[in-house]
Design goal:
heterodimer; A: alpha+beta; Ubiquitin Conjugating Enzyme; four-stranded antiparallel beta sheet; 4 strands; B: mainly alpha; 2 domains; about 0% strand; disordered N terminus; transferase (chain A); UBC (chain A)
């Protein structure tokens, strides 16, 4: 059973400091188990200027078990899967502590963006590129940020609205859009 | 004039509580006395300088003291005059009660000798400053000392009418505050000691005729008043050893855990469990499962023992590992037992603090 009192408190606290940290957590639905976190790309990195969405899933044992986090915005990063958005971060696995919160976890993810660990990669291709051709890595990461992280939040909403107006249920539209990485035409094909 | 302080010295606190309550009346009788002294002085000056000249003071127009007239007649006249002036002076004081500072300097004392109406200003809200003026001015007019002392007897009669115990607590509190304020403001001035002793003389008004008391009383009386007052929490001179009651009773800010800045520092006890956000009860707050100082409620602790048994604050294994591998009930009972022993120590500390509070106040 998720400790909803604590989750609620965390949301309130995070909302209070949203201006300072830029980190936001909002419930995706009204059950407080599925949440969406947003982190700004750290300055001085290829991710600067982007806003990255992270899908948060609270397990039954939260806060004694770590929250499941996954990028829903596509990121080019050695420790983040360019396919699924899975994050390789110790505090989200064995180093989780119940004293951590969603906000501190998201802060750690933000720190991971500015300090990649190619020796412990999640995405081997990106890690290889990071180690062998750093400049290409930076260019690709910046390109991905430009393409997916800058307009994604607004763009996705627009796409969702368009598809909903076509007569599809909103939840289905959202899940499929996320599954296809925000590509409107692919989502439409799947919906049909 | 000297002797009244004796009555105040043996029981400084009693004299102190008595004193401020009578402040108003005291001021008035002191005023009377001051005016008598001033009138005497004027008389003497007139005698010494120009014969049959009227009073220098504009306010003293009605004082026409024939220098050759009999002493009793003079006194009668002065009494009448000073009483009337004392009443005038009530108004004067209300207007000028804030200008208190110059009264202690010898220059102003001299000027008050020369100009009779200056002395009215010197009796300000606090009785002690009035006392200082009377002392300085009386010492200024040394030649008239005999006469003033003689007249003191008559003054006492007047004062004794006013001498009554005060039963109004608010007045006492006000007077205490005023007294304290004055003592703080005139802390560095040498006149403070004689100030308060003189004021006791003026106010005490009962024990006339003990001439040997002045040097001792000057030192004793202020100390007594310092002992008798209660410390306010924001007082700069408040001893730091006194415990702060408001701090003792208020729980720490519940937002502190999320606010950052060392949520589990050793010294502070959070009011909520940082894991489940429930309020920590007495057992929980006295429960310190890990050396790192991270506190949590017993339920969360038990839950963690059932899982990886690592402290959420430092990620180290909890010490009571071997028992935790047995049935979880045992783990729970162990934590309870631990909590009890820890809490006994802390309760002893609490009682110690409360004893301190009693002693401090």
């Amino acid at each position: 059973m998720v400790d909803f009192a604590r989750v609620q408190k965390e949301l309130v606290e995070c909302h209070k400091d949203a201006e300072g940290s830029g980190i936001r957590v909002a419930p995706k639905s009204d059950n407080l188990v599925n949440l969406i976190g947003t982190i700004p790309g750290p300055t001085g990195t290829p991710y600067e200027g982007g806003v990255f969405q992270i899908q948060i899933n609270l397990p039954e044992g939260y806060p004694f078990e770590p929250p499941k986090m996954q990028f829903s915005t596509k990121v080019w990063h050695p420790n983040i899967s360019s396919q699924s958005g899975a994050i390789c971060l110790d505090i989200l696995k064995d180093q989780w502590s119940p004293a951590l919160t969603l906000k501190t976890a998201l802060l750690s993810v933000q720190a991971l963006l500015s300090a990649p660990q190619p020796d412990d990669p999640q995405d081997a291709v990106v890690a290889q590129q990071y180690l062998k051709d750093y400049q290409t890595f930076v260019n690709t990461a910046r390109y991905w940020t430009e393409s997916f992280a800058k307009t994604s939040s607004r763009g996705v909403e627009d796409k969702v609205q368009k598809l909903v107006e076509m007569g599809f249920p909103e939840s289905q539209v959202r899940s499929i859009l996320e599954a296809v990485g925000g590509d409107e035409n692919l989502a439409l094909e799947r919906l049909l | 004039m000297v002797s009244d302080s004796v009555a105040a010295v043996p029981i400084p606190s009693a004299a102190n509580t008595k004193n401020p309550g009578k402040k108003k009346r005291t001021n008035r009788s002191a005023k009377l006395k001051q005016y008598k002294i001033d009138a005497r002085r004027e008389q003497w000056l007139n005698k010494g300088a120009v014969k049959n000249k009227g009073c220098k003071d504009g306010m003293d127009d009605d004082v026409h003291v024939p220098p050759s007239s009999g002493k009793h007649a003079k006194q009668e006249l002065e009494k009448l005059e000073t009483r009337r002036r004392g009443e005038e002076d009530d108004v004067l004081i209300h207007q000028e009660s804030d200008s208190e500072s110059p009264s202690n300097s010898p220059v102003s004392a001299n000027s008050s000798v020369l100009c009779g109406n200056d002395s009215g200003t010197n009796f300000t809200g606090s009785s002690s400053s009035g006392g200082s003026t009377s002392s300085s001015s009386s010492s200024g007019g040394c030649c008239s000392g005999n006469i003033t002392e003689e007249e003191e007897d008559e003054d006492e009669e007047v004062e004794e009418e006013d001498d009554g115990c005060l039963d109004d607590w608010e007045a006492v509190a006000d007077a205490l505050a005023a007294d304290e304020k004055h003592q703080n403001s005139s802390h560095n001035e040498p006149a403070v000691e004689t100030d308060s002793s003189q004021s006791r003389e003026v106010t005490g008004g009962s024990g006339l005729g003990h001439p040997n008391s002045k040097p001792g009383s000057g030192g004793m009386v202020p100390r007594g008043s310092a002992n008798a007052r209660a410390w306010r929490a924001d007082d700069a001179f408040r001893p730091q050893t006194l415990p702060n009651l408001s701090k003792q009773h208020s729980m720490p800010n519940p937002d502190r855990f999320f606010g950052g800045g060392g949520p589990w520092c050793r010294t502070s006890v959070p009011s909520n469990c940082p894991i489940c956000c429930e309020d920590l009860d007495l057992t929980d707050t006295s429960f310190l499962p890990c050396n790192c100082g991270f506190r949590l409620c017993l339920f969360c602790h038990k839950r963690i023992l059932e899982q990886d048994a690592r402290c959420p604050g430092c990620r180290k294994q909890y010490e009571c590992e071997p028992i935790e591998t047995e049935a979880s009930v045992h783990g729970g009972s162990l934590t309870l037992r631990l909590a009890r022993s820890v809490s006994m120590i802390e309760r002893n500390q609490y009682t110690f603090v409360s004893i301190n509070v009693k002693a401090g106040q």
